[in-house]
Design goal:
2 copies of one chain form a homodimer.
Chain A: E1 14-19, E2 31-36, E3 41-46, H1 54-65, E4 70-77, H2 83-101, E5 108-115, H3 122-134, H4 141-147, E6 156-164, E7 167-176, E8 189-194, H5 200-213, E9 229-234, H6 249-271, E10 279-287, H7 290-301, H8 304-311, H9 317-325, E11 338-341, E12 344-348, E13 351-352, H10 358-366, E14 369-375, E15 381-388, H11 392-400
Parallel strand pairs in A: 4-5, 8-9, 10-14
Antiparallel strand pairs in A: 1-2, 2-4, 3-9, 6-7, 7-8, 10-15, 11-12, 11-14, 12-13
Helix pairs in contact in A: 1-2, 2-3, 5-6
């Protein structure tokens, strides 16, 4: 576990605690608790996988009922594919915490990540709750960032400050995710909080926009998880009136900061992709619309042939060309398509660019960060997707996980 | 190179030859020639990848102009992503052969497989042509099956006999393909021939039906190739009138035999999938239509998480459940979905089946051939797709290929 940069700002109005509940791992914390001050507003987005995990369903229901006071997050067990028992288990964990804290059970949002299909060990979680409540601390962000990890090798913790009516607001977020990463709504798990006061509908809008540009634009393996969730909390402890005008400079400052934190966390997830050795940015330009731009990006990002060539630092651009060709764009004129590796034009007029040299391609592919740019010649829409390569370690990690 | 079973029937009216042209490989044949007797009818299907290779475009054009006399097939170079030069090279190879044989250049169909984006070494092909023409032999099927391989480890050669008006007709086919296998029309390359006489439109129908049930229902890595092509030739040397009635017993016998040969070749491709250690059959039942059945099959077959679990013989059924959930079926009622590993029910009512035991799951996954069956509870449509696992060797083969 290497935590490259765990600098962060605490968020007034929010305390955290972690514990080693022994859910799956030994010798490490695997349970995290967020406590919000009364009056905190929360927005959340959840996975679109049809097999949504029990905690996702419970969290969504609780959030619809009232403003949350607690987030209860466990690693090691996803409580997904667990049917009605999974729902009862998630509710039982919320109820146990609520009873100890003297709160409504619906004030607790549960989140789980880990192995699918195993019953949640509720008794172990229950046993850890008194210690969690006793240990709440405004500065426990790094411990929480570590406690929610599964196959991740690095904690992901990002802070930004922004100005609201002359005051400096804090914004801090954590995320986990390394495999089963092709978020369709939000990534595996991400939690952000600010001390600014924000009107609820604007908080939801701010989160939706940020997620679309960050977590929904990354993919490790094309496998959308059953447990994806992203929460943005605004404690209001900064003081002053709530941000309520979407045209205001305050909202712009908030929205930019939230997007920046989400993008930084999303990039950290890709850098920590299972077995990843390369950070790959795909830019698809001149598309007719977002849908076709995204289809081309996905065809490249999910091609095992492209991903293994990236791992080998091999400028095997024919595999990129083949992926563009199979993306299913109707009436694609291949003579209009251009493909670049970094700044090097590799494909034009349906074939290899006249000036292209293998040496130039190799130089781009040798770097740890690679840009692949595709211009489709069909319109003016651009999209950007982050992905990584496919290495021996991806196979090892996923063949060994659970064993 | 192990050729498990290269028993075959020659097809009267068809001769073959192979040569070592040094296109990319050394110490092996990499060029194959088919010569058809005058009067032979040919049907063919080609890739739907937008970046179709030059030989695919030329072969389609030549086939539209007249009945072919020759198929000229090289391995080691795909002549794809080669622009206008690629088209000129494919035409030049056809013209060189036609001149030697005293034939129309359009009587030659070119096929290429191998690395994308390199110019076709036409001079080496031209130099090998006189030897090919001199060496034509009705019994050279096994040599041709070997000459067209790239990363394949086994030759793929299948024969069936069928009855036409009391005569026994021969049907023999070869195929190659191991990676970039997710045919969308036909697989990488497959060539079938019969000595029965078949009316041209019926021959096309027969091939289209067979391909849909065989090559279009397999996937190694989801990467549709630029060079996929499948040809079915009918020499007519069996004698008797051409099969012309789609309702006749003769047509049924032909169609069944062609489908059987295509299915056997398609299965051989999956068994020889790059790095494959498992043959996996996906059966999706109770779908509302073919499209959604196929989407569920593809989501499972292309999930790197499912494929690595298969490699590890790990009954990690949560990954299968997550793949079904992300297939994008609108309004999927997860309580109605059942999933089986072999005969073992693993998922029902949104979670693990009550009787499921890890031991039972492990027993199924330990076998070299695995059946995954998913019932969606939405309709009466069934589809069947063959795929394989994702192993270290897949990464090795594709990281090293070209290096």
């Amino acid at each position: 576990m290497s935590d490259s940069a765990l600098m962060f700002d605490p968020v007034p109005g929010l305390r955290l605690a972690t514990a080693a509940a022994g859910i799956r791992y030994t010798h490490r914390d695997d349970l995290a608790l967020f406590e919000f001050v009364d009056g905190t507003q929360c927005a959340a987005v959840f996975t679109r996988n049809a097999f949504r995990a029990a905690p996702v369903m419970v969290a969504e229901r609780h959030l619809a009922a009232r403003a949350p006071r607690f987030l209860l997050i466990n690693a090691g067990n996803a409580n997904a594919g667990t049917g009605t028992r999974g729902l009862a288990d998630a509710e039982a964990a919320c109820a146990a915490l609520a009873e100890l804290a003297g709160e409504d059970p619906r004030a607790v949002l549960p989140f789980s990540t880990g192995v699918i299909g195993e019953p949640l060990p509720v008794a172990r979680i229950r046993a850890a709750l008194p210690g969690l409540l006793a240990g709440l601390d405004e500065r426990a962000w790094p411990a929480a960032a570590r406690a929610i990890l599964t196959t991740d090798t690095r904690a992901k913790l990002v802070s930004r400050r922004f100005q609201v009516a002359g005051r400096t607001a804090a914004l801090t977020g954590i995320a986990k995710g390394s495999g089963m990463i092709r978020p369709d709504m939000a990534t595996m798990l991400a939690f952000l909080a600010t001390d600014a006061a924000v009107e609820p509908s604007l908080l939801r809008r701010c989160l939706a926009e940020a997620v679309d540009r960050s977590f929904n634009a990354i993919t490790v393996d094309g496998d959308t998880s059953t447990n994806d969730a992203c929460v943005l909390a605004a404690t209001g402890r900064l003081g002053g009136p709530a941000i309520a005008d979407p045209g205001s400079a305050d909202y712009r400052a908030l929205a930019d900061a939230v997007t920046e934190v989400c993008e930084a966390l999303a990039e950290a997830i890709i850098r920590d992709g299972e077995g990843a050795t390369k950070l790959v940015t795909l830019v698809i330009e001149e598309a007719a619309d977002q849908d076709e731009a995204r289809r081309v990006a996905d065809a490249i990002a999910h091609s095992p042939l492209v991903k293994t060539a990236l791992f080998a630092s091999d400028p095997n651009w024919g595999r990129i060309l083949a992926a563009v060709g199979r993306a299913g764009l109707s009436g694609l004129a291949i003579a209009a398509v251009r493909i670049w590796l970094g700044e090097v034009l590799i494909v034009t007029d349906g074939g290899r660019a006249p000036d292209y040299t293998e040496e130039a391609g190799r130089a781009v592919m040798a770097a740890p960060e690679i840009l692949i740019r595709v211009a489709l010649g069909r319109g003016r829409v651009t999209t950007r997707v982050l992905t990584c390569d496919l290495s021996y370690d991806y196979v090892r990690i996923n063949a060994e996980y659970r064993s």
